[in-house]
Amino acid sequence: MASAILQRILDIAEEKGAISIKEANILIGELTFLDREQLAFALRVLSKETMAEKCKFKISVVKAKIKCSECGYRGKAIYDGPEYHTLNFAVPLNCPNCKGVKIKVTEGKEVLIRKIRLKVNSIGK
Amino acid sequence: MSNKEILSVSEGEILDIEIEEDLLKANRELASANRKILDSCNVKSINVMGSIGSGKTSIIQWLIKELKNKYRIAVIAGDVTTDIDAERVREAGAKSIQINTGRGCHLDALMIRKAVKKLDLKQIDLLFIENVGNLICPADFPLGTHINMVVVSVTEGPYMIIKHPFIVKEANVVVINKIDLADQMEVEIDKLVDDAKKINPLTKTVATSVKENMGLKSLINALEL
Ligand SMILES: Nc1nc2c(ncn2[C@@H]2O[C@H](COP(=O)(O)OP(=O)(O)OP(=O)(O)O)[C@@H](O)[C@H]2O)c(=O)[nH]1
Ligand SMILES: [Mg+2]
Ligand SMILES: [Zn+2]
After folding, report:
1. How far apart are the first and last CA of chain B?
2. How far is B149 from chain A (nearest CA, A)?
3. By three-state DSSP, how is residue B216 classified?
């Protein structure tokens, strides 16, 4: 995942004619189960000898939000329990209001590149 | 003063760009576009995922040898740096295209879209895509294939399936390979099958040994080939 994020950032920077990437804001949904520290570490390692070598990767995590099609609830989701991570993974999240399972995850599954700060060579402009 | 200005200019300017792009969503959209292309040419496609060395290429070769008179087969082989696997499947009798991912640890839908353009899909009935050996990242990057197959082997020990629920959840078929070594490794195949079913009750499981030629017919059935 880290390599996909980095590649996309490098592609965009190259498109814009950047000479280096100073900062990147990344948002990950909690349901991706990506670990923030681990992702940041991987990005730092992978970006060596690229335009993003000195980039500050700012990663934030967004909580899961759902929409319930049974009772109309919109908001935070609750997990089934600690086992959600492992065996009961296949069991969907429940609606905290009616305990229904007919829910749609509206936030929490994304890997979003929000914003990047580039250094561009102004001579080229 | 003017000196200073020149300095700051040559150092470059700072440019902020708003992107707001969801990588996973972009990949999913490309994957469904891939599926449409494959469907329009009547190509059945299989994403072969699994850990490093579990036997992905061996299984693809095995299927090619068995099925090459029935289908026109092509393989897209993902690998970090080499083209060994692409060569191996070519020898088995299929067309093949290599994708080197470099530092990337999985294939994505865009890579497949580019690779597919190099194939004459009208001349192909069956397409295998060998993903990079990895049980984590490929789970998040669907390619648009009709079947997702995950290959693990008993040499990886008894917890390989339970530790990777995400990829098993995406799998239509889970292959437990190298069963010729099960006794030696003290791994119970039934337990691995149970684990897979608990994570994904809809998945089909097949135990195979390419080495001893066991399980080929069941695998072909599971893949509906
Ligand atoms: N004993 C035994 N060995 C096997 C079996 N299937 C594959 N192998 C061996 O396992 C090794 C790895 O097989 P590959 O088919 O290259 O595995 P792979 O998953 O494609 O590997 P990577 O592409 O490198 O991730 C080879 O030496 C194969 O001969 C099997 O059923 N039994
Ligand atoms: Mg291989
Ligand atoms: Zn509800």
Report:
1. 76
2. 18
3. helix
Residues B147-187 pLDDT 10s: 999 999 999 999 999 888 889 989 999 999 999 999 999 99
Decide if B198 and A87 are in contact by the 8 Å CB cutoff.
yes
Q: Is the CB of B56 under 6 A from ligand 1?
A: yes
CB contact at 8 A, B205 and B193: yes
Q: What angle do CA B142, B178, B83 make, to 5 degrees?
A: 55
B18/A110 Cβ within 8 A: no
CA distance B90 to chain A (A): 29
DSSP string for residues in A50-108? STTTT-EEEEEEE--EEEETTT--EEE-B-S-GGGGTGGGGSPPBPTTT--S-EEEEES
Predicted pLDDT of residue A93: 66
Radius of gyration of chain B (CA): 21
Q: State pLDDT tens for residues B81-124.
A: 899 999 999 999 999 999 998 878 899 999 999 999 999 999 99
Quote the CA–CA distance of A33 and B158 in Å, as a whole number.
23
Measured CB to CB, residues of chain A less than 8 Å from chain B are: 1, 3-8, 12, 16, 18-20, 22, 32-33, 46, 86-87, 89-90, 109-123, 125
How much is the pTM?
0.85
Q: Which of A3, A112, A113 sits opposite B103 (nearest CB)?
A: A3
Domain hosting B86: range is: 11-222
Give per-residue pLDDT as tens, A23-56.
999 999 888 888 899 899 999 999 999 999 999 9
Residue A98 CA to ligand 3 centre (angstroms) = 4
Query: CATH number of the domain at A1-63+108-125, out of 3.30.2320.50, 3.40.50.2000, 1.10.3130.10, 3.40.50.280?
Result: 3.30.2320.50
Query: ipTM of the assembly?
Result: 0.77
Residue B60 CA: which ligand 1 atom is closest?
Answer: 15
Q: How many CB atoms lie within 10 A of CB A109?
A: 17
